[in-house]
Structures are given as structure tokens and as C-alpha cells.
């Protein structure tokens, strides 16, 4: 049992995380929000108060913190008696915040893989370059660290684990598909930090094919998928965090990630990339100023959080899994559909932030009640997916399953006989 | 009679100007090249020596100069005994260099209108905002200042004057058309300073219609022109320097400027503009750096001078003039066709730099021999076009005429009885 949550970051995902923590503060205890800019933390607190999101009266506090400073972060963890840290700041912070958790014994959660600002799309598997180097340190300190527990990575990893354990004897392929069929009404915007968004696509696209890494180019492979609610949607083979753990943990020979892009997005992306404006390497202007082009592109694009009020439409994200069961070929789609406008009504965010933030809070709750408090580092597919899926069904992120038997809510109790009582005592592995 | 030339700037146009001055140093005397970066001046001198461009042995020297510093510029003008200054540096320098010329008595030439880095596309006529404010000062100091004497502005102004004086009783419209049908083989590049190039198109497009200014939007008006050599070419109504003097000096009711753009250029331009990346106003990055987006775009684009070695194809720039002669409707096209590869063979530049640089040197020669040494400020259409056109015919920029009588070289001697001897004594106005 762990209590009191420190949220690192004050962007769009942190906004959702804070709201959802507030909605569950009977279990989670005090809520602290820390980022470099105190005013951004305070704006989130104001929004929680406006929406009346607190489940019961409790502490909700803003802090100014440079989370690259490990000692300052440790001090804040201790001062706030936080036993759970949800890191939804920049992915450049992961290793610093993780270090602070290891030293203080707090559980660590994040929603995206660590990145070095100076490198893009490094040698796979990416987790081995940073986070996994601290596996032993977590184990020695009995620190629970759940990596990448947003929607993708995160929920899609749990879907894969669920499919491997409960739907198939043998899984042949997992295609993770992420479609945002929403519209923000702006000329161009990214749905999360543009710097991080573009960095995903500016170099080699790694996929896992026949049990080996395959290097592709961005927008090299296009496929049209027919998905529930959002319908036929074009998506492109993309490099993404979850492949770098799932390829190592699940024993599935083919794992691919597909991201939906419209022609307009691709055109803008290609222009910026071909001109060199998505580069993370500094250039020198005629006036002698050293500037990272990507940081300037980020500065001119809309703040993703500003898109929420006018966002319409829905997202569909899920895993299409193929394999065999009892000698028969089988195909299962596990997915969630999320509505931008409903998210905005509930917490003042768009669905991209919402789908990333809610799973992190579900994971925090599973650590708080002991279910996932494993005292070591894990990626999501290494944890029992049943309590996670069941909990999110009641938190605004219901999981649906589409297979030969039809399309329905995935109720772990009905599908595999997993009950709420079992969840309370479920072992993490 | 004036001698010794100081060239300000060391970009693509300065390169051509220096080569052409070298080819005519018997008349022009010593040649000095000054820019902030000494190495760029020296590279031009090396190239002149490689090509053997010097007409006769003479002085050819590089200087480091910040031409925003009027006192430093005056010092250099005096130290080098330069009586002619050809300003082909950034258009932000014009007023400073002009001030240095007024104080030292040196003749002043430039090829583009003055710009304030903080302003784009100001109230027309643009010359009235800056250069024309120094008209009286030039007259008082008996300083010859020829504004905008590149190709466009410059030669196209002379063409207009030629048409008004020698081809029509009444001119109804002048359409200046600038088509670059060449190919540089790069994903995207501008043919001269990207900062200046984009600034031309990022705000209101002014044209002169029915004796009044008309405000249009960029890419609002498209027209296909059928031109010699380059054939059918799409061009768009664009704001441009020469309209801002010709509208005031020629008494022609309609004067428009059309620039040729391919679909690809327009797409890249629109993406950059719509994202705010062509803005001259600073933005603040997440790291707190103040950056002008346009300066970063300039920094990532190819140096226009670097395009020259692989540039193929031709440019066609000219004036299509409509009006009446002896009560009959008449249409005349005055134009030049310039070949990128031929320019590179001759001076190591592409045709865009070449067509801008050669006229400035022709003008310097007309000042040196007294023909255009008028002791006051003028735009090109206020000067006699005949000696200018005749001189350029022998300098690599021949003028052709297409009218009802056919398509032929415009030989002022044959067309209007203007002889070389007359040129020597021609009065400037």
C-alpha cells in the first residue's frame, strides 16, 4: 500500500493525470504537481477546482521544480511524503526522476521512453539504452517502476499480454494501430509536444519482423485499416516505444506500430523534414545565433493543450492480433474509442492527452492498493493486464474486443473469470 | 568621370559584380570588396584570379566591414579612394551605405530597396519610406545615387522607359514578368537571400491598377504567359520594388509584377508561412531563447551561391507593354534570356545572381564615363535607357524585342538611331 502522488510535469497529459488523481484521492491521498513553471501547475489546480474533480477533500498543491535536478526532486518527494511519482514531464527527464525514486523508495511511473535531446531513434531496443540499465538498482532498492504506462505505450502492451495469455495458443503478429479521426480546426498542430512528436519520425523506423529488427523509412509502408467507429483509416508503419519492450518480453515474431496520418500532416512533415527544420542539431544563423530548428518549430506551433476546446471527433487505438487457438487461425482486435468532446467536458483536455493520462493514474491506483506494487522495474506487458483493464473500464477508457464472436466490451470477469476480489490479491506476475 | 569601385557585400550578386568590374577595370580602376566576413571577400578574389577575369593588371582587395557602421564605411571609401560604391549587401544596409556616400561624395548604386528588418511590405510607395527622404541631401552634395539597378528592379525599369519614349504614344499597361525555368536539383532553395526572398511575399501584394494602389494577397492572381525560349509559364501577381518608383515616375495607369513559381515552391512557401516560420517577429522557445523564425529558415536552406555548379536551364525576364501608337493598339515584349550554365562557365554564378549583378556594373561604367553621373538621386526609369541597354548587349545581358515585326536583338542604334558616340555625351535626363 502506497499513498500520496507527486506529478512531474504540467502539460496536457499532466492535466489529465491530475484530474484523474483528484477523482480518486480517497485511495491516492495527497496530490502534488511540480514543473519548472509554477503558474502552469497552478492552472491545473484551478481547473480541478473549477470542475469539482476532487473525490473528497484533500491536499492539492503546486511546486516549482527543475526535475533534471535529482537532489531537488528527492527533497520534494520526501517533503511531500509522496510514495508514488507519476512522471509526465518531458521524456528528457526520465532518468533523473527515476534516480530520485530509487534513492527515496518512491514508486516510479512514466508514459514515454527516455530520450537524450541530442540523439534521435537510437539502436534498438531503446529501453536497453537507458531505463533497463537501472533494473538491478530498482530491484535492490525494492522500488516499483512501471515504464511506459500511457495508452501507447501502456494499454496496448497490456492488450498484447492479455491476448497472448487468454486469446491464443500461439500469436503470430501484433499490429498496434493508432488513429486519431478527430479535427482540431487549426492549419496544423501536433497532439502532444511537437518536439517529441516529430522526433518519433525523423530517423529510422524500427519494426519487429520475424523475430528481428527491421529498419524502414518513415511513410515507406502505408496500410488502410477498417476500424470500429472511425472506419477506414490510412496508417503508416512507425517506430514507437512499445516495440522495444514487447519484442523482448512476449515471444511474438512480428510486432508493428501503425500511426494514422492525413495527407496534410504528411505534406507539412515532409516539407519541414526535407528542409532540415526538424533537426535536433543546432544551426547557426547569419547573425551568429546557435539555434535548434526543432525547438523553433515547436515554438511556432499551437500548444497542444490549446486545441482541446474545439476538438471534435474520436480516436481509436488498439491491437490487432493474429495467431492460432486450438489449431484454428484467429484474429482479435482489442481497442478503445475515445471522444475528444467528452474528454473536454470531463477534464478540459483532448482525447490524446486523456488516453495517455488515464492509464498512468490507473497504474498508480494498482500500486497504491498493492496489486502492481512489485518492488522492481517492469514494462506494462510484464504485469497482469486483467486488473488494469477492469479498472480503466470504470475510468473513462473502456476496452472493447472484436473477434469472430462480435464486438463487445471486454469484461475480464466474464471473458476469463477474473473478479474484483481476485484483483485485490492478484500477484503482479 | 569617376574611378575606383567599392563593392559592399560578398554574396552571390557581389560575386558577379566583382567579376564584371574586373572584366572592365580599365574604365573602373581599383576594385575593393567589403563585407563582415573577410573570407567571403577573399573567396571572390580567388575566383576572379582563377577565371582570369581582370581586363588589365590592377588592384583587387578584400576588406572586413560592418556596413551598418557609417563612419567605418566612410573611412573605407576614403582610404580606398573609391568614387563609386556598389551596394549589393543586405537591403538592411542601404540607408547606412547611402549616408556614407553622401558624406564622402562617392556615387551610390544598389539593386534592391531598403528594408527595415522589423517591418515587411510597408505602405506604398516604399521608396518614399526610406531612400527618397535623402533626395535633397544627394542633390545638395551633388551625389549620384542610382537606386535599384539590378535586373528587376533595374533593367525592367529601363525597358519601361524605353517603351514609353520610343515605342508608344500612350502606354496602357506594363506587366513585368520574371520566370526562372532553371533547375537547381535541390529539394528546395531560393535563388537569392531566403530572408529577402520570402519577405517579398509574406504580406500584402501591392500592384498599380488604374493609377491607384491595389492590395492583393500572395498567390491570389495566377496567369499563364507564353514567353520566348522558356515557353508557357505560370506566374503570380507579386509585390516588387520597381512598382514603387515606376508608378510615380512614368504616368502609366497599370503596372504589375508577375513572378513565376512552381507548385512545389508554393507548397513549401505556404507550409512555412502558415506555420509562422516566415515571420520576422521573434518567438520564444521552450528553453527561453528569443529567435526570429525566418532567420532559422534561412540558416537551414542552401546558400544560393552553392546552387550555381549544378544549375541548368534558363531565365526569361521582361516587360510586356500594351498601348497605342499612331492610333493603333500595339504590344511589345522587351526581354532578356539568360542561361544558368553559361553564367557559371563565365563567372561561377547562376543566372539569378548574374542578371542582378551585371546591370549594376553597367550602371557603374555609365557613371564612370559620365553618362549617368547626374549628381542626384534617380530610379533607373528616370535615366536614359539607350546607353544602358546598348552597353549590356555587349556584357552578357542582351535585350531582345518581340512585337508585330518579329523577335530580334534590341539594337538602340538601329531601332532609334542612337549611336555609341551619342552615348558618350548623352545627358542623363
Automatic annotation (TrEMBL), chains A, B:
Residues 5-146 form the Saccharopine dehydrogenase NADP binding domain. Residues 150-396 form the Saccharopine dehydrogenase-like C-terminal domain. InterPro entries: NAD(P)-bd_dom_sf (IPR036291), Sacchrp_dh-like_C (IPR032095), Sacchrp_dh_NADP-bd (IPR005097). Coiled coil: none annotated. This is Saccharopine dehydrogenase.
Amino acid at each position: 500500500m502506497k499513498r500520496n502522488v507527486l506529478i512531474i510535469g504540467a502539460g496536457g497529459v499532466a492535466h489529465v493525470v491530475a484530474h484523474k488523481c483528484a477523482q480518486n484521492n480517497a485511495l491516492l491521498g495527497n496530490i502534488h504537481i511540480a514543473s519548472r513553471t509554477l503558474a502552469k501547475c497552478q492552472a491545473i489546480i484551478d481547473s480541478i477546482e473549477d470542475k469539482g474533480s476532487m473525490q473528497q477533500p484533500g491536499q492539492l498543491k503546486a511546486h516549482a521544480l527543475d526535475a533534471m535536478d535529482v537532489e531537488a526532486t528527492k527533497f520534494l518527494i520526501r517533503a511531500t511524503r509522496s510514495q508514488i511519482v507519476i512522471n509526465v514531464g518531458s521524456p528528457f527527464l526520465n532518468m533523473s526522476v527515476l534516480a530520485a525514486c530509487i534513492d527515496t523508495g518512491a514508486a516510479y511511473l512514466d508514459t514515454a521512453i527516455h530520450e537524450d535531446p541530442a540523439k534521435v531513434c537510437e539502436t534498438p531496443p531503446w529501453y536497453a539504452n537507458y531505463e533497463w540499465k537501472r533494473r538491478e538498482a530498482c530491484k535492490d532498492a525494492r522500488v516499483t517502476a512501471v515504464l511506459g504506462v500511457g495508452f501507447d505505450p501502456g494499454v496496448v502492451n497490456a492488450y498484447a499480454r492479455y491476448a497472448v495469455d487468454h486469446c491464443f495458443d500461439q500469436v503470430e503478429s501484433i499490429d498496434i494501430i493508432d488513429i486519431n479521426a478527430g479535427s482540431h480546426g487549426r492549419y496544423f498542430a501536433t497532439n502532444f509536444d511537437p518536439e517529441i512528436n516529430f522526433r518519433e519520425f525523423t530517423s529510422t523506423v524500427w519494426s519487429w519482423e520475424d523475430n528481428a529488427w527491421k529498419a524502414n523509412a518513415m511513410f515507406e509502408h502505408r496500410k488502410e485499416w477498417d476500424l470500429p467507429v472511425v472506419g477506414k483509416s490510412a496508417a503508416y508503419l512507425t517506430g514507437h516505444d512499445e516495440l522495444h519492450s514487447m519484442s523482448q518480453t512476449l515471444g511474438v515474431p512480428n510486432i508493428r506500430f501503425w500511426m494514422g496520418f492525413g495527407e496534410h500532416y504528411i505534406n507539412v512533415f515532409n516539407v519541414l523534414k526535407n528542409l532540415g527544420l526538424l533537426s535536433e542539431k543546432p544551426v547557426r544563423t547569419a547573425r551568429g545565433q546557435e539555434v535548434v530548428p526543432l525547438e523553433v518549430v515547436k515554438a511556432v506551433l499551437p500548444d497542444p493543450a490549446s486545441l482541446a476546446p474545439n476538438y471534435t471527433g474520436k480516436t481509436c487505438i488498439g491491437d490487432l492480433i493474429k495467431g492460432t487457438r486450438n489449431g484454428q487461425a484467429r484474429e482479435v482486435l482489442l481497442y478503445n474509442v475515445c471522444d475528444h468532446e467528452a474528454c473536454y467536458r470531463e477534464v478540459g483536455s483532448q482525447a490524446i492527452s486523456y488516453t495517455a493520462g488515464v492509464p498512468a493514474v490507473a497504474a498508480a491506483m494498482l500500486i497504491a492498493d498493492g496489486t502492481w506494487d512489485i518492488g522492481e522495474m517492469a514494462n506494462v506487458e510484464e504485469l497482469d493486464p486483467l486488473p488494469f483493464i477492469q479498472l480503466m473500464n470504470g475510468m473513462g477508457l473502456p476496452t472493447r474486443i472484436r473477434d469472430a464472436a462480435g464486438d463487445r466490451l471486454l469484461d475480464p470477469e466474464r471473458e476469463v473469470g477474473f473478479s474484483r476480489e481476485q484483483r485485490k490479491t492478484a500477484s503482479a506476475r
